[in-house]
Every structure is written in C-alpha cells, then in structure tokens.
Specification:
By secondary structure, this protein is an alpha+beta fold. It has 20 helices and 33 strands. A hairpin with a 5-residue loop joins β4 and β5. The longest helix is centred in the middle third of the chain and has 26 residues. It is globular. The relative contact order is 0.11. The N terminus is likely disordered. The structure holds alpha-L-fucopyranose. Alpha-L-fucopyranose binds next to loops.
C-alpha cells in the first residue's frame, strides 16, 4: 500500500525552508528490514603483524573471543571464554555486623569528622578486597600455530573487516600466497579459522596450547583438548576443544604438539565452555564440534556474516570529507596524533564500537566487562570485572540509540541478577529493604562494599544501573517488559534508598551516606584529603531519576500508587542541586575544596548525562554551571583516561557544543587510542570505545527530553554527511543527510505510532504518526 499526504505546517520552520514537504508513504511491517545503502569499506588493517596482545585484532560472539596477532611464522591467538573466572559465588562477603555501625558513621560525617568516619568505614563496613588473582577474569589460554618454514614474507596485510566481522591475514612467502581467516560465530557457537595457500601441499604447521601448569592438555592427531579447574580449584571448571581438519597432507602428534605436514588447507574450530551455566559443559563442546563438522566452511561463514549483519547493517554513517580506506589504520592514527584530523577514522571508530558490542554482548551472554570479553594472561587490569560506578553503564549508553537493543539485554539481565546478593547486602550492611550494589561486581553478582573507602563506599551501583531498565522501555514501550521485568527491579532498587536516606540535622533534608562522589576527594578544614560525605550530588541525581522513573512506570502500568506517593514525598525532601560561588555545580553538600580539580570522574554531571535533569530550556542556570564544571575539569587536566574523555564528548553533546565535542573526539584519538583503535585508560579498557559511539550519536540526534532533536551538536568539521538507522526514544528510527552544516533530508520511521515532537534548531513541530509510517522531510 502506498499512501501520500502533504502536511501543512505553520511555523518558522516552513518559512526558513521554502520547499519543505512532508510526505508520509509506505506502511510496512515493523520487523521488515530497511535497505541500507551500500556499506563503505570499514577495515582496521596493518601492513605488519604485532607482538602485542592489545594491538591484535579482536573477534567474538558474545561468549567466545580471541585476539589475533597475525604473525605468519608463529601465530598467537589469545583465546577467551567470558566465564573463565577464579573465585566463586560468595554470600558472606558483607562484613559481619556492618549495619550496626552505619548510624555512628553518619553522625561522624554530619559532624564533619571525615577522617574518623573513614577509619570506621574501613574497619567496620568494607570487606577486604580479595588478593589480585583470586577473584578475576582470565584468558582461556593461548593457541600457538607455528609455521617454521615461512622465512621471507612479503605483501603482508592483516585486517579486521568490520562489515563482515572477519579477520584476515594475507602474505606471500617463496611465491606462495597464504591466507588465514578467523571469525567467531554466534549462531554456531564456535570460532572458525582457516589457513589456505594458492598452491597445493603448502600448509605446514605445528600447534599447541598454553595456559597453566595445572592445565590438563590432551593432544591427538586432530584435536587439542584442554581443561582446568581455575583459580587453583576455587573458580570455574572449563573444557575447551581445538579441532583441526586438513585437506591433503598428514597429521601427527610430536613432542606434545599437533603437527600437520604438506596440507592444502587446514580448518580449525574452537569451542569452550564452563560449569558456570551447567554441568554438561564438556559434553556440550563435543556436541557443538560434531554439529559444526557437518557444516561446510562456506556455510558457517555465510551464517556468521548474515547473523552479524542483521545487527550491524541497521546503521550506516558517512562523513563526506572522509578520505576512505586508503592507508593502514596505524598510519592514519599516527597522522592524527601528529596533528591531522581524519573523518574516516571517526566513522571507523564509531562502527568499531558497534562491532565490539555485537562481539561481546549478545542475548544469553554476560555483559561486556572492562575489556569486553578480551583479556590476556591471568591478572588483567582491575580483574577485567564489572565496574558499576561508570564503566559498565558507559558500555551500554549506545546500545539502543545505535540500533543494537538486543545487545543491551545481557546488562539488563545482569542487573536482575544483582538482586539476590544485593538484598543480602542491603540488609546486612544497611538494615535496609530493597537491593544495593557497590562500585564493582563479578559474574556471580557480588554486591558487598569492599576495598578502600574512596571507591568502595558507594551504594549507588544498582540505582544507576536501574536507569538502563527504564531506558530500554522508553525506546520500545514494551509494557509487558516494563511490568514483569523492569519495574519490579527498579522498585526494589528504589526501596533501598527509601530506607537508606536520612535527614541532614542542619537542614532536615534527606541525604545519602556514608557515600562518595565516585573516587573523588576533597580537602577538610585541616587540609586532609577526605572522600566520605553525606549526600554527594551524584547520589541525589541518581535517586531522583530512579524515583521519577518508578513513578512514571507505575503510572503507565496503573499500579503501586502508595509506593509512588512515598517516592514523591521523598523527592520533595531531597536537597536541590547547587551552584558554587565560581559558577560550577557543587559536587558535595556545601562548598568543599576539591583535592584533585582535574579528577577523571565528573560524577555530579550525571544530571546532564546520562540523566536529563539539566537542559538549556528547562534549567538554564544549571546548564551554564555544567559547562563551567567541565571547563574547570579540563583546564586542570581532566579527561586523561579514555573513558573520562568519552564521557566529556557526551557532556558536550548534551551542552549542544558540537565543536567542543569534536575537539574531545580528536583528543581521544590522539591520547587514548591504540593503533587497532581500542581505547586506552591506559591500559586497554573498552568503555571509551562504547562511550564515543553514544557521544557521536548524541551529537547528531538526541531524544532524552521528549522530543527528537536532530543535529543538536554538529561540529564544523562534519559539514556534510549522513547517518541512517539511529534510534530515538518512543520508537522512531532516523535517517538523515546534511550539507554545509544544514539538514538536507530526514526520514523518520515511526515504529510505535507515537506523536513525533521534532526539533531542528529552534523549530519544533508536533506530528501525529501511525505505527509503521515513514515520514520524509526535505529541506
Ligand atoms: C573506575 C575508574 C578507573 C578505572 C576503573 C576500572 O573506578 O575510576 O579509572 O577505569 O574504574
């Protein structure tokens, strides 16, 4: 059916753009996939291999991953399976009797006896951090593939094709052209590698696996099986199988290595699983291998690409000044580091972020950790865990807006998983109902406060995470999900704060504490560095948002009026956000002197982003204060970690400052990006890779204030371009092109039939839409 209507819109908009037309046509099923314009080449590629893990090329299917070094003579493939964790579920981490001391600590803090309070928190509340290595994510192992006879190498290239999710290594040796391909398949739950040559009988390899002394390794003529009870018997049990299939040649076992001689081709399939999800994990591996051995390589590859592209191809992004895929990524990046700018690199970085989320977070898997699913060795940085005081949330800011809602699911499930332990911690540590989580967690959903006060005494992890549950609803308006999944969890997170907040004796207003403004500190009157505080601004902002979302959700569902009434009452009793003498937003109650004015966390701007409590139109003073706050931080060296810089990009997008956001993208590329475009803290930490995607998306479209705001923060450097397939709240999918800094075409697909409130600059219009309707605007 084809339907066209012209809509007469009487506003400034129409005057500005004489030939504006609004055409609505073609109703289609919402599941139908939109045709995406021909994808531009998106490759991360090099003319040389690497000997560094964090410069390898990552592949992954959400659960099974690898970092490929691409070395012809001795290939190293660092294998990962997302549940390889030492340690285990521990219901007893919360310090005994902690709850008895909370009131005394609160009194000390109200009396400004910060150091005494900190000593008491350390002694009575915080659980000891486990020694490094005893509760950590680890690699599965290293797979080595040696090819001793490859000496003179020429025409070398290794590449990750982001359009297909395939890594390829090509090179020549003694006039033979060698090709190696690698991918990790979600539909077939296995990694598949293929080694070929353009002449027969040229593949000679010797392969082995290395992990621990404790690893049990069994090598046969066609497989290497290995298993271990990790963490010296305290962690998960795993089993992994590397299966080799040859065309031509012979295969044998020599000195514990699998040796293949004079083969035409070798296919390698890797499967791995642990007892984290079930006891039959070893059998599962054999079943998986037996299944895929019946499927041809080409079919496995096609299935993998089709599956990957069903997510990836939903969105295309082009900046017209981008020069294309003409020279290696490390060279491009190097030029940028030396002062050039490169729009193609930005496009690549954007789509690489989407690639990484698809590769590390799929339905049924765990959420992406600090390094996604990729980790080297046995003691990765910060245990490669789930830091929930910014890092995991940043991983997922982009999921819905960059059209990867399915990839959000592991985090949403994870938040649900925090409830069981979180209820215990709420009760034991705070005598509170509901559930709570602190700054970090693991695959067993640990929730106890632990470590040092500066970071560990922060009971806001569940509260912040719960924002994601409601955000998912705002994009999908799935009421069943809201009723059965999101609201019960949000409510339980809110219930904790209902009990936890106490009146400040000076003002009578409700505050949180003991708590911190993540990882930051201030100077006491005696000049000591203190961290603990009653009522950091971020806590208020998180609680306000959580309560508001609960109230809105209960209204939508027409349930729980009494609880909403309590939340409304509590909101009225919370202190407002305050602006200091120098015009910046205050991070704590009262004007405290910052000990580290360039601190990487800018937590009190949570209200600006990811929340929407500060905006130019609704809170102009706070908006200006937020601007000053960022400027203050940046002027003192802020943004020095990749994730911090990525957050600043998002802040500037919300401040509608396209050029400033752009400057920070360039700074991220120059200072916090590895040659393979992985983000560095340092070391490699994946949050910045994801954070830049939400930042760029928000420069081009925002929908957090009830309207779809197009091109809110377009920088001069992106004068012309297009983005197709980004998603706004209320179920709108947006395609647009712009030229010379002005919007040219806009296509809005209404998936839910909501009223579209559309903003472009100062022009706002409201248009009723029908489900499935496509609205085209020409400017
Ligand atoms: C947060 C940050 C650190 C680091 C760690 C993993 O605590 O403060 O910079 O990113 O997470």
């Amino acid at each position: 059916m084809m339907k066209t209507r012209w809509v007469n819109i009487h506003n400034k908009f129409i005057k500005k753009f004489a030939y504006i037309s609004l055409i609505a046509f073609t109703f289609f099923g919402c599941n139908e996939k939109k045709e995406v314009e021909e994808a531009s080449a998106l490759n991360i590629w090099f003319n040389q291999p690497t000997n560094k893990w964090n410069e390898g090329l990552p592949i992954g299917n959400g659960n099974l991953g690898a970092m490929i070094y691409g070395t012809p003579k001795k290939e190293i493939i660092c294998l990962n399976e997302e549940t390889i964790w030492t340690g285990g579920k521990d219901y007893n981490r919360d310090k005994k009797d902690a709850g008895k001391h909370i009131a005394a600590i609160q009194k000390l803090l109200f009396d400004e006896k910060y150091m005494e309070a900190e000593a008491m928190v350390q002694d009575k509340i915080l659980a000891d951090r486990l020694p490094t290595g005893s509760d950590t994510y680890q690699m599965l192992g290293n797979l080595f593939i040696e090819t001793p006879n490859l000496d003179s190498i020429s025409n070398y290239k290794r590449a990750l094709d982001i359009n297909k999710s395939v890594v390829t290594t090509n090179f020549k040796s003694d006039d033979v052209q060698y090709t190696r391909t690698y991918f990790s398949s979600f539909p077939d739950k296995a990694m598949v590698y293929k080694f070929t040559a353009d002449q027969k009988g040229k593949i000679n390899i010797s392969s082995w696996v290395k992990r621990n002394k404790q690893t049990k390794i069994t090598v046969s003529e066609n497989s290497i099986a290995f298993s271990e009870h990790v963490g010296n018997g305290h962690g998960v049990k795993f089993h992994a199988l590397v299966h080799f299939e040859t065309k031509g040649g012979t295969s044998t076992v020599k000195d514990g290595k699998l040796v293949i001689t004079d083969a035409d081709e070798v296919q390698i399939k890797v499967v791995a699983s642990t007892n984290y999800r079930g006891l039959d994990f070893e059998q599962e591996n054999y079943n998986a291998i037996n299944k895929i051995l019946k499927i041809s390589y080409n079919e496995l590859l096609d299935r993998h690409i089709a599956d990957y592209q069903s997510l990836f191809n939903r969105l295309s992004f082009k900046l017209s000044d981008s020069k294309g895929d003409d020279f290696p990524t490390d060279v491009r990046l190097q030029k940028v580091k030396k002062g050039a700018t490169d729009n193609y690199l930005t496009q690549l970085q954007y789509q690489f972020g989407r690639y990484l989320l698809i590769s590390s977070s799929r339905p049924g898997t765990l959420p992406a950790n600090l390094q996604g699913i990729w980790a080297n060795g046995f003691t990765p940085p910060w245990n490669s865990d789930y830091h929930i005081n910014i890092n995991i949330q940043m991983n997922y800011w982009m999921a819905e807006m960059a059209n990867l809602a399915e990839c959000h699911e592991p985090f949403l499930e994870y938040i649900d998983g925090l409830r069981e332990m979180g209820r215990i911690t709420a009760k034991k540590t705070y005598n509170s109902r509901g559930f709570v989580a602190h700054h970090t967690s693991n695959i067993w959903h640990a929730t106890a406060a632990n470590g040092k006060a500066r970071y560990g005494m922060w009971p806001m992890g569940a509260g912040w995470s719960a924002q994601h549950l409601f955000t998912h609803y705002e994009y999908t308006e799935d009421k069943e999900y809201l009723k059965n999944k999101a609201y019960p969890i949000m409510r339980e997170a809110a219930l904790f704060f209902v009990d936890f907040m106490v009146p400040d004796p000076k003002t009578g207003l409700l505050v949180t504490g003991p708590s911190v403004s993540p990882e930051n500190n201030f100077l006491t009157k005696d000049g000591e560095k203190a961290t603990l505080n009653m009522g950091p601004a971020m806590d208020r902002e998180i609680i306000f948002e959580l309560f508001r979302n609960c109230i809105v959700a209960a209204e939508i569902l027409n349930i729980d009026k009494d609880f909403s009434a309590i939340l409304k009452q509590k909101i009225k009793q919370m202190p407002p956000l305050e602006i200091g003498k120098d015009g910046r937003l205050l991070e704590w109650v009262g004007e405290l002197k910052e000990a580290q004015p360039g601190h990487r966390h800018i937590s009190h701007l949570y209200a600006l982003h990811p929340s929407n409590q500060i905006s130019k139109s609704k809170t102009p003073e706070l908006f200006e204060a937020a601007k000053k706050t960022i400027e203050g931080r940046l002027s003192k060296g802020g943004g020095h970690t990749g994730w911090s810089r990525a957050w600043i990009i998002n802040f500037y997008a919300r401040l509608l400052e396209g050029n400033k956001a752009y400057e920070n993208i360039i700074a991220l590329q120059r200072k916090s990006t590895l040659p393979n475009l992985l983000d560095v803290h340092p070391p490699f930490q994946i949050d910045g890779n994801f954070g830049v995607v939400s930042g760029i998306t928000e420069m081009l479209m925002q929908s957090h204030n009830g309207e779809v705001h197009v091109l809110p923060a377009l920088p001069d450097a992106w004068a012309s371009g297009s983005i197709k397939g980004i998603v706004a709240k209320k179920g709108f999918e947006i395609d647009m092109t712009w030229e010379l800094g002005k919007l040219k075409t806009l296509v809005v697909t209404s998936k839910l039939g909501n009223t579209l409130k559309l903003r472009y600059n100062d022009d706002v219009k409201e248009i009723a839409t029908k489900k499935g309707e496509v609205l085209t605007f020409n400017y």
